[in-house]
Amino acid sequence: MGMHTRRWITGLCALPIFLLGIFWDQGDWLAAAVVSVSFFLAWAEMYNLYGIPHRRTLLGWQNCLALLFFICTVQHRFVYLLSISFLFFWGSCLITIRRTVAGSRYEIATHGLTLIYLLYPLACFVYLRSLENGPSYLFFMLAVACFTDIGGFYGGRWMGRNKLAPQISPNKTWEGAVAGAAFSVAAVLLTAVYHSVFLGYTLWYSSPHRYGSVLIVTVLMSAIGQIGDLCESAMKRDAGAKDSGSSFTGHGGFLDMMDAMLWIGPAMLVYVILWQP
Question: Per residue in 210-220, is it b (16+ CB within 10 Å) or e — as a string?
């Protein structure tokens, strides 16, 4: 079985879980569970990527934070979650300093990066879902991230000539980036029409008078997602790794699977707060 086939199979198997967490009326606990487990796995991948050993004490802190993440997200206690995250960051730093001073600066920076890079975007997902149009927001983000990746891969493979960032990711091209944005726009518009006409379910971007602004937002989110992809590629290249892990066959690790979403989530929250009625 080829790599591309395994990649498609993994994506199609994971898709129902994401859709259930997004649209199921009783899906708060499922969404919180998925996000909490994802946070734990991604944290472990980040430590592996930068060569920080999994000590028992730090693993205990990870388990506690993942559990608190689950409880807070189910109860929609997002302020508590952010406050608790800082306490755990300070605790992780104290554990590192108490163990050894040598290399502590590097490890402390990794603790902070992990919380900022992983915790806040994941908290954005759960917060967005709790809003009135939350499922639509998350579905929009998922569609943009997935089809930007698909369009970027095949567009770059078939038409790619000009390298986008050769020192970071040699296979990415400007043609692929444009194709990814075009695929995401087409997917968003098609899903809006499909939901309205065939399912009778109105997404926040389904109204025809919003298509112009949705087009702009989709292109912007696609670009932000591709920046997130490049950022994660830079982290892997700095660490001398091809993939962040092996959790998802054909995709790599969790960070490889969610690199774009980790950037799109906070950007989408800013858009919703500032411009969505």
Answer: eeeebeebbbe
**What secondary structure does DSSP assign to 218-251, as a single string?**
HHHHHHHHHHHHHHHHHHHHHHT-SSS-SSBTTT
Could you tell me the residue range of the domain that residue 15 belongs to? 3-275
Residues 6+ apart with CB under 8 A from 38: 122, 254, 258
Query: Tokens standing for 215?
Result: 């087009």
Please report the pLDDT score of residue 268 as a whole number.
93
Domain count, the chain: 1
pTM summary value: 0.83
Angle at 143 between CA 145 and CA 268, to 5 degrees: 70
Around Cβ 116, how many Cβ atoms within 10 Å? Answer: 12
**How many CB atoms within 10 Å of residue 137?**
26
- Name the pLDDT band for 121 (thresholds 50, 70, 90): confident
